[in-house]
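quick one before i forget lol
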Amino acid sequence: MGLVRSLDSPGTNFTGLTSAISVRLLGKRLQLLKDPFPRITRLAVLRTPNFPTDHIQWDWLERAASAFNVKLIALSMNGKSDLDAAFAAVHRERPDALYGLNNPLTLILRKQITELAAKERLPAIYPFTEVAEVGGFMSYGASRPDLFRRATTYVVKILTGAKAANLPIEQPSKFELVLNLATANALALTIPPGLRGLADKVIE
């Protein structure tokens, strides 16, 4: 995005922690969905074209999807008013599953998104634990509470005279896989023991 010179040496008045929007993480989410459910070949992807990193995420996810022989179907939403149209496209296209990109609307509209996904009977994976907690089937991503706690160290350093340009941007060190069994049961999905064993949190 051009906000900093590098993670190790930002060189600008911009530093902190990144939630690790990376090709590896995008591919890992797809693998977590595809491995237990190999029938998935068509994947609907919730995108927010107005969000700066969505185009980058889409390009990286396309690379990962090609390795899994999965076709992506773009569902654009720039606000709540776009959700009905996006899921009307789901109804027409009949994808096998849903994938939420790492952007604010996936989090803000989580309740509406999970309700619409349930109506279409779609297993889905999201980047935020909060989405699984309100009915999303699965989430995998950086622990936001852990990032928030670590962010306090930056506050202390800057308030005591450190320059943002000299503070490396840190990446997540803790990731969480959350499964919602109630949603799995509602969708008549059988979760393999191996996947359940990987979960950091299981919502009954």
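fyi The mean pLDDT is 93.
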